[in-house]
Design a protein that fits this description.
Elements lengths: L1 H18 L5 E4 L6 E3 L8 E7 L5 E8 L9 E3 L5 E3 L2 E2 L5 E12 L9 E8 L21 E7 L5 E5 L4 E5 L3 E5 L3 E9 L5 E7 L7 H15 L7 H11 L5 H12 L8
Parallel strand pairs: 1-3, 2-4
Antiparallel strand pairs: 3-15, 4-14, 5-6, 7-8, 8-12, 8-13, 8-15, 9-10, 9-14, 11-12
Amino acid sequence: MKKCFNILVFLLSLFFFAMHSYAHVPYVQTKDRDKVSVPGPIEKCLGFYMHLDEENDVDMFYFQLEEDDFKPGITMEDIHGNIHDLIVTDENGVTGRLLHIAPLVPACEVYQDILLTIAIAGPKQEYLLPADESVNLPFDTDDSQGVYIVNNDVQGDIWYEQYSFKSYFYQKKTDIILTKAGQYRIYVWQASGAIGDYVVEIGNIEFFGFKEIVRSAFWLEHLVYDGEIRSGQCKEQLKKVDGENPTQAELIKYFIDMLGEGHTPYF
């Protein structure tokens, strides 16, 4: 019976994601990985579900930009059919590719002290400047590289994500323009040594093709039932914030009700 429920949830969620847009496509790390490749283009909104295992744990995400990635006229269509220019200019007159990063931490009391530091490293340019030698960074750079750092000194506001029926602390987001070809790395760590789960959202354009819809539907149950959270204490505390997780029957009813609203599929 449980297997039938799982199949039904998957099929309903598959149709659901074909008809509704969500902020990011989930990339769930079931095993701790310190190095994660970011699929392109960097503007496609992806959510990486990660875990800091120990005091000095540093996670690193990496991607490559080529000279062709900066040619004028490159566009991307989102799930709503809107066309986005990928070569953009910010308020300071800097033109290039937009990198959007937004960290999230499950909004349980035991994770209250997880204040993430985000560092972007890559070829020196307008926003990636030589590292300050007075700042002790948990990674090395050479003379050709620059760094952009974002510190979270206080915990973010609580935000409810409908996709996973879960509340998160929404920490400082980052939007910077990258202007040079080369390899880029995004480092995430917790300076005080607090450990636990987090999500880092990379990209600002919602794109859900067939592969993205299948991926989202595949991970839905895992995320709804807190499979990505390794702390049992956090799971219990989230019940005080969000209430009990929906039963499988309630989850199926939720999808049926949403599908009954008559939205038109986007593909």
